[in-house]
Amino acid sequence: MNDSKSKSKQGQKVSRQGVSEPAAMQELLRRIRGRDVQVGVIGLGYVGLPLGLVFAEAGFSVLGFDIDNHKVESLNAGRSYIDHLSSERIQTSVSAGRLAATSDFARLAEPDALMICVPTPLDRYREPDLSYVETTVRQASASLRRGQLVILESTTYPGTTDELVLPLLAASGLVHGEDFYVAFSPEREDPGNQQHTTTQIPKVVGGVDGDACELAVTLYSQVFDRVVPVSSTRVAEAAKLTENIYRAVNIALVNELKTVYDAMGIDIWEVLDAAQTKPFGFTRFNPGPGWGGHCIPVDPFYLSWKAREYGLRARFIELSGEVNIEMPRYVISKLQDALNTAGKPVKGSTVMVIGLAYKPNVADPRESPSFEIIARLVELGAEVSYHDPLIPEAPAMRTWPDLPAMASVDLDHETVSRQDVVLIITDHSGIDYRQLAADAQLIVDTRGVCEPGPKVVRA
Question: Which of 114, 139, 242, 396 gets the most CB atoms within 10 Å of its CB?
C-alpha cells in the first residue's frame, strides 16, 4: 500500500496550497519561464498578428495559423499586410527564425501554447456566430497532446470557454488539469493607437482552474508589462464585454444627444467642449455617423443574447444598438436636407464620401458605417465616390455585396469643387479640412472637424 502511494506521487510536487501539481504543469511552467516554448497563434488578423509578433520579439518561437494563404505567404516573406505593423518588424522576426506561418492545421500539435484569435461575428439575426471558434477548437482537439495550454482570446459571451471550448478539447480523451490546460484572455488590441501598444495594455487572464490561470499568467507575464489574473474565465469574458458595452452605450447616448440638440439648433460639439471643462464626473465621447469596427457593433449583443438564457433582457444594450444602428439614416437625412436647401435632389447629385475606415488613421473598414451610407445613397440615385488615403480600393463587404467596385479619388481642387456635396465620415488626420472646406460647394460633417459656416452642415 505504501509503495503504491509512493508511486502515485512520482512526477508530482506539492504546491503551496497543498495540492499536487502534475508533472506536465511543472515542466510547462519551467519552459515558459525559460522562454523555451513554442507559441501558436490561430488567426493572423488585427489581433493575432500583433500578438504573435510581440511574443517573437520577446524571444519565443511563434507559429501562426491562418486559412488565408495570402497572409501566410506574406508573413513568411517578411511582408506586413496590416498598416500599423511595419514589414521591418516582421522581417526581423522571420529572419531570426522566431516567426513563421502556416495554413496546415495538422501542425496544431507542435506549439506548447495555442492562442485562438478568430472572429466572433453576429449572424443575420444579430445572434452570436461561434462557428469560427468551434471549428478551430475541434481542429485543436484532433491534435491535442499532453502538456499543451489553450487560450481563447476571441471576444464572446460569459461561459463560452467553460461550456464550449473545454468540452470540445476534453473530447480528445485527455484530462484537463492533468494533460492540458485552458484559459481565456480577452484581446484589447486598438489598431493605430500609438499611446497604448500591445504590450503596454494590461492583460486580463482567467483560467478554467487555478493551474490553468497560473500557466497563462506566467506566459503573458513574459511579454506584457502588466497581467491581471481574475477568478474565472467567465469574469474575464465579462470584463471584455463590459469594456465594449460601456463604449457602445456612451456612443449611443452622445449620438442621441446630437439629434436632440440639433433639433434645438444647438451644436453638440460646442456643448461637449464646454462639458469637458469639468475636471471630474464627465468622460467625453464624440458623436459620429454610426458605430464601426469588429468590437463595438458586435460584442454588446453577445451579452444581451446570453442574458435571455437567464430570462433577462439587457435593455440598455439593446437600446444603444437601436440608436447607433439608426445613425446612418440620420446622416443621409441631413445630407438630403442640405442638398434640398441648395436646390438639388439626391438623385443625380455627386457625393464624395471622406473615409471608408471605421475610425481615423487605420486601414480597417470592418463594420464601417460608410458602406451602409454609400449603399443607401446609390439606391437613392446619387453618383458616389470616396477618398480614403489608407484604403486605395474599396474591399468587397460581406454585408453589402451589391456595392459597385470603387477606388479612392484625389482631393485636388478640381475633383472636390465639382462635387455637389462632400460627406465626412472618417476624420483621418492627414486631410487638410480647411482646404477641403474652401474647395467644396457643400460639406456635411459628421465628425465636427470643419468650422461651421454657410457651406458646412454638421450631422
Answer: 114
Instruction: List beta partners, residue 64.
Output: 41, 101
- Which structural domain range is residue 174 located in? 17-233
The answer as to whether 240 is a domain residue is no
User: What is the band of 327 on the pLDDT scale with cuts at 50, 70, 90?
Assistant: very high
* Summary mean pLDDT of the chain: 92
Same domain flag for 83 and 175? yes
- pTM score, whole prediction: 0.89
**Domain tally for the chain?**
2
Indicate whether 261 belongs to any domain: no
Last residue of a domain, one of 183, 216, 233: 233
Active-site hit among 117, 213, 295, 450 = 295
Q: Are residues 210 and 297 located together in one domain of the fold? A: no
Reply yes or no on whether 295 is catalytic: yes
pLDDT above 70: residue 21 = no
